[in-house]
Amino acid sequence: MSKSTILHAIRVLKSHIIYSYSQNWNKEQIENHQDKKLINIVKHAARNVPYYRNLFSNIGFDANDFRGRIDMHKVPLLDKQTLRTRQKEFIADNADRFGINWETTSGSTGTPLKLAIDNSTKAHKLGAVLRSYRWAGYIPWKRTFSIQSYKFADPKAIYKHYPMVNMWRFNSRLLSKDASLEILAMINDLKPEMMIGYPFSIYMLSKFAKDERIPIHPIRSIVTAGETLSEKRRILLEEAYQCSVYDFYSHHEDVAIISECKKHSKHLFDDFSYTEIIDEQTGETKTSGSGELVGTGFYNYAMPLIRYRVGDKVVLNDNQEPCPCGCRFRTLEEIIGRQNDYIVTPDGRYIGNVLEHAIDKSKGVILSQCVQDSVDHVYLNLIVDNTFSQDSIGDLEKGIRARLGDELLIDYKIVTELEKKPSGKTPFIMSKIGQEFI
Ligand SMILES: [Zn+2]
Question: What is the three-class DSSP state of 112?
Fold first, then answer.
């Protein structure tokens, strides 16, 4: 094991121990912690981050006078488009000293986003994630299966085993009927304690099991991540696997984590970042009802993001009485998030949110939408700017084919408006052949 891996493991363990304590903080302790962390990151951004140096100077904001939560409204909101187009300006002059890990994010717009996540943030996130898993009943080193969009060295490998953490990871992109039956056989043979992953992928396994009349060995608990978990899907999973389901929410930019506790309340991790719920139209911060999630991470000194608009909608709990689990972090009634349909490929694979990665490298695409209107045909609705060219189509085709394969016929349509569902929603993936979000 390399020295850096050992150091990382020690950092994760340390942060996890801290998170095991901070979950018991009272309101005052949480707010003091938030103020302290916000003051530190805002001062650091003002000194060392080109974007914030310029912004603060232009609006006459003096970071030395900043007092924390009470002054947050003085910092303008940051949207995805600004971050994508000016990403280099967000890297701190002294980023190297914090240890940079580069991560590329997905999105349904054309500019890929390269994030500099520093060592401390990586460790803090894992420490906090581990707390979530423990809330869901995870016992370290107990056998766990995880089904998400993984990239293994062998692109055809359905799974990879990680003996150090007793985890089996399965690539959700290869989830055909045959692959699902293989995974089901492994569940019944290896009897994992816990499953983590995309709710749709875990649901599809149970559907194939039902179709083929294969009983599933009961799992202790399931943690869903990466996609919106509807109540309907939660019930289907609980029935199929005879266990409790816990929803988990995080994202690459690391400005918010939401996790379900033992009592199934959805807690905002108030010790990991400072989150606000804003009115999407006016940008005003709300203390009740639904709105867009905005977050400020406490730890990423390599690339600080302050009041970043995550793009996902959530609903605050009207009742912010202390949760019976003992944790005083705020709670949400619902994570609305992104609700995509699914594309089913002719070779029987189901592709969901991960298709958004396919659009990343195509220049000039402002908004996009993938619609499946028959078993062998999809089309892309594209809203483009004047930098869009034949090369962009080439890049799009490459990205889409890498995920959907070669058998589907794909058309590209330049449009001025994306298609809406009868509900009024405009999902990135729309199925007209019944593979709808449930
Ligand atoms: Zn709770």
Answer: coil
